From TrEMBL:
This is Exosortase N. Its EC number is 3.4.22.-. The lineage of its organism: Bacteria, Pseudomonadati, Bacteroidota, Flavobacteriia, Flavobacteriales. GO terms for molecular function: hydrolase activity. Keywords: Hydrolase, Membrane, Transmembrane, Transmembrane helix. The chain crosses the membrane at residues 12-30, 36-51, 58-74, 80-97, 104-123, 160-182, 194-212, 232-252, 272-289. It comes from the Bacteria. Signal peptide: none annotated.
Length: 412
């Protein structure tokens, strides 16, 4: 036993470091994995299966990105960015012991991060509305469509609403994950590696095929008048995904081949100092996030709302109900589009409008055949913003307090 420990002490120390970090961050890991368990496990599996030995100093790049992510997490208390740093820490340790790395799996890791989720959610509604309009232009020459309003089609005085799953995040991720699996299998088959250019080209084609798949999915759903979630609805989505995404990908992969020969030269071992510094940084940020006081309110109520009686839903959300409006004041990590769709509202239209010479977001929504309007924006030092990255940059650099304000009301 003693000989075994002495012989494998380096690996045992690495596993101990990982275990310690995982124990400290157990709540964050459980919360995140519950949302994307399959994608995260497959991504890490691809990293192990598809990893190739390389003398390129990729560990320095991963180390640099990890430091940036942990700096952001330390300043903003963003658990999603910290989780991504934890994954990068695993990649760094894997590279230290094996000198292997997989660019394809690395892209998958980023794909299943909450950062990507936040970025994509901001685009989903707009992409879906544009897809619906293209479908309208296609079908109006074949069937009688009275009008289109956002994601609502009015046909023969009846309304057909396209749900959020069309051009949804899960199908988009599944398409790119399928792309990664195909490329990894092809690399193993050919005993060669893809260039960065080839990876970008195939991923771009995958995104285009995903748009095409959702386009035909919407057309089929309208023809069958099947927009309610049921077996037929999900079957149509799956069939369109296979026909317009998976099969074309299987065809295209025959022409996009890995070209870089695997080298047989001795790969220099990575420097342990990068792993040690990464461990200390991750440990410090983990302890700070773990010891964060989750009972105190994380936002300050603006002066114009202080006189209106409200209630704390939790330490991140303050709710004000008036006869005219329902007002939520939240931390900027919340997304009103997700909140409303999660509560059963259909987002009909999303656009930027100008109010008091400042840009804000406007949503038109429907629930139980009733129309609602919602105005929302980020606020920093009394100024309104519509860009999430912009306000987070302000908080990162100047540590300025940021809040999200969402006002919902019925039209007159």
């Amino acid at each position: 036993m003693k000989d075994f420990i002495l012989k494998n002490k380096s690996i045992l120390l690495g596993l101990s470091a990982i275990l310690l970090i995982f124990i400290i961050n157990s709540k964050i890991l459980i919360s995140t994995i519950n949302h994307d368990f399959f994608g995260i496990v497959v991504s890490l599996g691809l990293f192990i299966i598809g990893g190739r030995k390389t003398n390129f100093k990729i560990n320095y790049l991963v180390f640099g990105i990890l430091l940036i992510f942990e700096f952001v997490s330390f300043r903003l208390f963003t658990k999603s960015v910290h989780f991504l740093a934890l994954i990068l820490f695993l990649c760094l340790i894997f590279h230290y012991y094996t000198q292997k790395f997989s660019y394809i799996a690395f892209i998958c890791v980023l794909l299943f991060s909450t950062i990507f989720n936040t970025f994509f959610i901001h685009l989903t509604t707009e992409i879906k509305q544009n897809l619906c309009y293209v479908v309208y232009l296609t079908l109006k020459n074949f069937i009688s469509i009275d009008k289109i309003e956002g994601v609502n089609f009015y046909i023969n005085q009846s309304k057909i609403t396209i749900d959020t799953a069309c051009m949804g995040l899960s199908m988009f991720k599944t398409g790119l994950l399928s792309c990664a699996i195909l490329m990894t299998l092809e690399e193993n088959k050919q005993k060669k590696m893809y260039t960065i250019g080839s990876i970008i080209i195939f991923c771009s084609l995958t995104v285009l095929l995903n748009l095409l798949s959702n386009y035909f999915r919407i057309i089929t759903l309208i023809f069958f008048d099947c927009t309610q979630e049921n077996l037929l609805h999900h079957s149509i989505g799956l069939i369109c995904f296979i026909i317009y995404q998976i099969l074309p990908m299987l065809f295209l992969i025959r022409f996009i081949k890995p070209k870089i020969e695997e080298r047989n030269e001795v790969v220099k071992p990575s420097k342990i100092i990068l792993v040690l510094i990464s461990f200390l940084v991750v440990l410090i940020v983990s302890l700070k996030i773990k010891n964060e006081n989750t009972n105190e309110p994380l936002i300050k109520i603006p002066k114009e709302y202080e006189q209106i009686k409200g209630v704390w839903v939790n330490n991140e959300v303050y709710k004000i109900s008036t006869p005219q409006k329902l007002i939520y004041i939240k931390t900027p990590s919340h997304n009103p589009l997700v909140c409303w769709t999660g509560n059963g509202y259909n987002i009909i239209e999303t656009k930027k409008i100008t109010a008091n010479k400042e840009e804000i977001w406007f949503n038109k929504m429907e629930k139980n055949k009733e129309i609602y309007y919602s105005n929302w924006w980020y606020e920093c030092n009394g100024k309104k913003y519509t860009s999430f990255p912009e306000v987070m940059f302000l908080k990162l650099i100047y540590n300025s307090p940021i809040i999200l304000i969402n006002e919902t009301y019925k039209p007159n």
